[in-house]
Amino acid sequence: MTRSTPLMLLLAASFSAAALPAVAAAPAGSQQPAAAASAPVLVTAAQWQQMRSDGSRYPVFAKEQQRAERLVRGMIKAGIDVPVPKDKGGGYTHEQHKRNYQAIQAAGALYRLTGDKVYADYARDLLLGYAKLYPGLGAHPQGRGQIPGRLFWQTLNDSVWLVSAVQGYDAIRDSLSAADRKTIDDGVFRPMADFLSGTPENFDKIHNHATWAVAAVGMTGYVLRDPTYVDKALNGSRRDGSAGFLKQVDQLFSPDGYYEEGPYYQRYALAPFILFANAVQRNEPQRGIFTRRDGVLLKAVDSLVQSSYGGYFFPINDAILDKGLDTEELVAGIDIAYAQTSDARLLSVAKAQKRVLLSPEGLQVAQALAQDKAKPFAFVPTLLRDGPDGTEGALAILRMGGENGQALVMKNTKQGMGHGHFDKLNWLFYDNGQRVVTDYGAARFLNIEAKAGGIYLPENNSWARQTLAHNTLVVNEQSHFGGDWKKGQALAPTPLLFAAGDDTQIASARMDGAYDGVSFTRTQVLLAHPALTEPVVLDLLRVNGSKAARYDLPLHFNGHIMDVGFKAQSAVAARPVLGKANGYQHVWIDAASEPTSEARSLTWLLDGRFYTYRFASTAPSRALLGESGANDPSFNLRREPMLLQRVDGQGATTFYGVLEPHGQYDGTAETVRGANSRIDAIRHYRGKDADVLVLALAGGRQVAVGIADEPNRPGSHEVSGGGHSWRWDGGWKRFDTGSGKDGK
């Protein structure tokens, strides 16, 4: 796991469920007593005093304080530097303003925790520098988007600056002279809050950019004792409830706590949601913000942890692959959620993070960890509904084998706004601690100036968002919804089935409207059997179209090909490109087969384990092996392998397959075990209103799964073929033969 989010979130001001009095004495070294108009309100003086007295007793908290001290001492040694903004993301002025807000945040916390006036004076001097700079700033010279920032090239970063800096300011505000306090209030915090709340096209959106903006303005309102700012933050710039924080809580999360833009952006948005909710709870507990919508903000913390494997978030939509459970946003979320719930499962995540907030919540977590109260966080099969009412698709997560066992993720969610990808009914598979069936995520190198300043690269649109870059159906080489996210936003898949047993877990969904006149239904099964060394994935995708079309079904995988189990012509002299647009221009073709309806196989090796994928279709299909990276003169794309099944000239067809993990390769010991698949064949049979997939296993055993066309409806079904007949009631049924049991 990596850590790239600013330190400021670890120093976030937040509040425990049992709030302490708002007005208390300033720490030792303060030159004046705290007054009601300037006493800290984001963490009270009494709470700071408790942390100062007890923090050193708990190692995780003490280490966090030491980390902050190293940061601020280094900044003090470097001197005050408040440069005129000129650089885009990753440039010097951009990074310096980031370092400054981290230092303001940390210095405020350290002043309260140590009583050393050096920290307060340093934060004051930095803020006085901004009081001179900020009022004269216009739009950033490298401004991006409709509303450029002032300190940074996009308004989002200005909001993040204010969320952080206002917390540090709250901690030192009662130590300042009246003149300095007024200079900073009127030269920094009021004009920044006015700028953010005065741009309704950003402030009133239902989007993570707006969440950062309302959190910044609302927290500033509490610190400055300005109820107008707070009201705007909660209810929108018009103060009528049509926008603002409360509307965002109601619209951006499903009842299960799933965030509309997916786990990567749920991680990012979690910080302002949780931090501002704590500010509301501390100052206006009567609002019951943590119980709103049945505690959806606390559910969001739990669902985000569930949306991970091996410490990393599922990289769906515009996601960067290296974001995981140790990101500072989730450190804040875990600590605050634990303070609200005392859920000991969260402590195991905090233990792995090895960090806490310098806040009352962080102290609670550090104390609980020292008392060995942590319980394992159970990663379990989970259906996370999407949409504010839970009626717009869902993320289906199937799991076996514990935290680093098998996880099958079926992305049956809605579009995810402008950060969404065109990949309905896409899937990912994890096993043995590795990404096996992969998702590209975003084409972006965050804040690396050499790569377009760290923003999304052109290939994010030309490749990463296109349907071909994902593991789902492509029709006539066009992406879902014609590549129009606003059209996609209005149409979500329909979940049909979700069931999770000990040895069989299944999910199914249908997508209508991704293409005119085309409907496709996908059912996936995670299945364990004594004859198999590991659980396997069964995949059934039925497509029905109103006219003949080209159907492509890509599979993006991670590993080195060991065996191509079909005849294919390799492109060795020249590397042709798959197509001209919609992502096809970015794929080299390395090998291609002739059409056939017979099942084929492909085996690859990843981290000492073999994976065999057996696949077929009811209509003749070609198999193509390719790699991403064509037409990429700036080397912006990762080179990753893919398999493509192609059916031409059909109105309807069914793709089916099984992915089997098996065996072990030990390079150190030079041993190989189980390199051959334990599955002899996969067969498909069709009935009047149902399908059956049959796996012929080594040793003569057989397992079959019957799947109804409408698995969410009651009814009886019968399918016959290959000398067998399968009958069942309901949406699905598993049948085992040759192992002492028949029908489950």
TrEMBL record:
Q: Where is the Heparinase II/III-like C-terminal domain?
A: 385-643
Q: Which residues form the Alginate lyase domain?
A: 80-307
- Domain of life here? Bacteria
> What keywords would UniProt list here?
Lyase, Periplasm, Signal
SUPFAM superfamilies found in the cross-reference section: Chondroitin AC/alginate lyase
Q: Which residues form the signal peptide?
A: 1-24
Q: Name one GO molecular function term.
A: exo-oligoalginate lyase activity
Q: Which Gene3D superfamilies match?
A: 2.70.98.70, Chondroitin AC/alginate lyase
Q: Where in the cell is it found?
A: Periplasm
Protein EC: 4.2.2.26
The main place the protein resides is: periplasm
> What is the protein's name according to its record?
Oligoalginate lyase
Q: Origin organism of this chain?
A: Stenotrophomonas nematodicola
